[in-house]
């Protein structure tokens, strides 16, 4: 009698399920602003982002932007050390054409705040958006892949960015065609809420030159990242080889833990 590998059958069923529920990804371009604040300027910075939030919402309403998010960096650091960045801002566009369009942002600002702020105040806030910032490094990214999104984001939603540096030519395929399945299983088990894979296509002069990709991961509020560890002893031989190949195809950097602050939603 042939031996039936029930675990293998179960895995195939799960993978088949996700082939049905995951959807094709249209190319999407976005910009990540990594921000270091001047000492004591956090309150001013938050007020500045609130000012810009109304502008971003109008831009989205007029199809000049897809989405906008502000996150605080809450990554733990050693005593006596400080974080390189304090806040991150995400600006999502339909494509590169939309991102590079000549949108009159001052006109948007005037219309977004009309009747609430004087024109001189609007102009002042608009021109002094960098005032609370010590420096800003910007990354432009193409979204290569993502999973379904099962949990709306909130302040209590654990969110992480994982910077990566590509080592081998197989890295992107291994991430999208193999590692993604593990994230989908985590979502099915309600351990994770969302996963996305992004490639850096441009960056500002002082941004990290070694990083080539980011993965963005959102977890369910009741299950933090450490709730699941790979069990190497229970893996099929072929699966362990694939994981070994995937891990060797890129270099990982320390993860960045984020706290949601505000968005265009």
List keywords for this structure.
265 residues; alpha+beta; Alpha-Beta Plaits; 2 domains; 8-stranded antiparallel beta barrel; 7 helices; elongated
Give an overview in words.
With 265 residues, the protein is of the alpha+beta class. The chain folds into 2 domains: 6-28 and 141-263, Alpha-Beta Plaits, CATH 3.30.70; 34-136, 2-Layer Sandwich (Alpha-Beta Plaits), CATH 3.30.70. It is built from 7 helices and 9 strands; from the N terminus they run αβαββαααββαββαββ. The protein has an 8-stranded antiparallel β-barrel with strand order 1-3-2-9-5-7-6-4. The termini are far apart.
Element layout with pairings:
Blueprint: H1 6-21, E1 28-37, H2 42-61, E2 67-73, E3 87-93, H3 96-99, H4 105-112, H5 119-127, E4 133-146, E5 159-166, H6 171-188, E6 192-203, E7 213-219, H7 237-248, E8 250-252, E9 256-263
Antiparallel strand pairs: 1-3, 1-4, 2-3, 2-9, 4-6, 5-7, 5-8, 5-9, 6-7
CATH topology of the largest domain: Alpha-Beta Plaits
Strand content: 25-35%
Rg is: 21 Å
Count of helical regions: 7
Specify the overall morphology: elongated
Number of strands: 9
Please tell me the overall pLDDT.
Answer: 87
Element-level helix/strand string: HEHEEHHHEEHEEHEE
Count of discrete structural domains: 2
Major beta sheet, specifics?
Answer: 8 strands, antiparallel, barrel
Strands ordered across the widest β-sheet: 1-3-2-9-5-7-6-4
CATH architecture of the largest domain: 2-Layer Sandwich
Task: State the separation between the terminal residues, measured CA to CA.
Answer: 58 Å
- Sheet/helix structural class: alpha+beta
Poorly predicted ranges:
1-26
């Amino acid at each position: 009698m042939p031996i039936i590998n029930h675990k293998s059958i179960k895995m195939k069923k799960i993978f088949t399920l996700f082939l049905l529920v995951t959807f094709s990804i249209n190319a999407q371009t976005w910009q990540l602003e990594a921000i270091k604040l001047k000492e004591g300027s956090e309150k001013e910075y938050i007020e500045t982002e609130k000012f810009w939030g109304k502008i971003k919402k109008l831009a989205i309403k007029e199809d000049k932007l897809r989405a906008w998010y502000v996150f605080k960096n809450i990554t733990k650091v050693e005593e006596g050390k400080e974080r390189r960045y304090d806040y991150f801002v995400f600006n999502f566009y339909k494509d590169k054409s939309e991102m590079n369009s000549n949108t009159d942002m001052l006109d948007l600002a005037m219309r977004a705040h009309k009747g609430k702020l004087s024109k001189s105040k609007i102009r002042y806030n608009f021109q002094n958006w960098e005032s609370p910032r010590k420096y800003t490094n910007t990354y432009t990214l193409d979204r290569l892949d993502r999973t379904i999104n099962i949990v709306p984001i909130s302040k209590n939603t654990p969110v992480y960015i994982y910077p990566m540096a590509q080592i081998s030519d197989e890295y992107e395929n291994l991430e999208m065609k193999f590692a993604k399945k593990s994230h989908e299983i985590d979502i099915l088990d309600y351990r994770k809420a969302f996963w996305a894979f992004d490639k850096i296509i441009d960056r500002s002069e002082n941004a990290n030159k070694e990083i080539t990709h980011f993965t963005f991961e959102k977890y369910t509020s009741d299950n933090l990242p450490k709730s699941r560890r790979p069990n190497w002893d229970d893996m099929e031989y072929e699966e362990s080889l694939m994981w070994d190949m995937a891990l060797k195809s890129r270099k990982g950097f320390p993860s960045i833990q984020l706290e949601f602050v505000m968005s265009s939603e």
